[in-house]
Amino acid sequence: MAQELEGKVAIVTGGASGIGRATAERFVAEGAKVLIADINDSAGAALAAGLGAAARYQHADVSRADHVQALVDAAVECFGGLHIMFNNAGISGGRHPHFLDDDLEDFNQVIGINLFGVMAGTQRAARHMARNGGGVILNNASIAGVMAGQALMSYRASKAAVIHLTKCLAIDLAQYGIRVNCLVPGHIRTPIRSMTSSAVSMELQERIEVALKPVWDSNKPLKRDGVPEDVAQAALFLAGDRAAQITGAILPIDGGISAGDPVNH
Ligand code: NAD
After folding, report:
1. Catalytic positions, please?
2. What confidence tens digit (pLDDT) does each residue in 7-40 have?
């Protein structure tokens, strides 16, 4: 059976862990060459080494446009082109348990990675794709960008912006044969929780867990947390030719939690 991404070259930002890692592995399994980008160099290099000649690792902080441009250049140099850009890297931020205590530094950092990273990744990849017959941009948002709630205000705002940006970019970049779609994961079991605990106080971590656990456990129609492979499979579909007529799509991967009234699930 033909592999779905045979002959394609992809960049996966935040590819050393969690959803990015699962997607890099899935893309390689489906025949793609993958440039894994991250700031966690040891994990990223180890992953690329394990995936063999189809994968490379490059350090890149997505909040730096020069790093992002270097990624695009490296994909072209190492693998001969760039067809898929997965803007996946993200942080939760939220060092303060209460909004009134939040600081603008935290906001700027979250926006810099979660929103500017998507903007820069899309622009630099799309400049190459526009000159070379098109391509696919995938952005990773979050259910937190769709459903309102307490805490993590910077994160929620950044992810809502990624969703709207995706739709605008889909319209703008269609003329170049570039499709732009957005993944909207619900709660996925990844190390983002350990990333969160290193970035926020334990008090906030516990508040988030306590506040969201009943929703995650009982009100989700499919009654289970997602796993990184669930998102990787959605990314594979949107990246491949089976999704050739899909652009500007906002795809929930959340067990149905955003579909309706949780009380009546
Ligand atoms: P993760 O912590 O397992 O992976 C995130 C990766 O991004 C890490 O390897 C980290 O080193 C990297 N990273 C952080 N800052 C970076 C930067 N400036 N430049 C490059 N790489 C950077 O988390 P995850 O759960 O796999 O999250 C991946 C994406 O999925 C994020 O955008 C996150 O917001 C989104 N998401 C996650 C969930 C969830 O429940 N886990 C839900 C919705 C959306």
Report:
1. 155
2. 999 999 999 999 999 999 999 999 999 999 999 9
Q: Give the other-Cβ count within 10 Å of 197's Cβ.
A: 17
Ligand 1 atom with the smallest distance to the CA of 159 is: 34
Residue nearest to atom 12 of ligand 1 (CA): 14
What are the E-state strand segments in the chain? Answer: 9-13, 33-38, 55-59, 84-87, 135-140, 178-185, 250-253
Give the binding-site residues of ligand 1, using a 6 Å CB cut-off: 13-14, 16-20, 38-40, 60-63, 88-91, 113, 140, 142, 185, 187-188, 190-192, 195
Q: What length is written for the chain?
A: 265
Radius of gyration of the chain (CA): 18
Rounded to an integer, the average pLDDT of 170-177 is 98
Centroid of ligand 1 to alpha carbon of 89 (angstroms): 5
Q: Hey, is 188 helix, strand or coil?
A: strand
- C-alpha 191: how far from chain center: 14
Q: Could you identify the atom of ligand 1 that is nearest to the CA of residue 228?
A: 26
pLDDT for 150 equals: 82
- Give kind and range of the element (H or E) at residue 129: helix 117-131
At 213, the pLDDT band (50, 70, 90 cuts) reads low
Give phi and psi for 59, each to the nearest 5. -65, 130
What's this model's pTM, rounded to 2 decimal places?
0.94
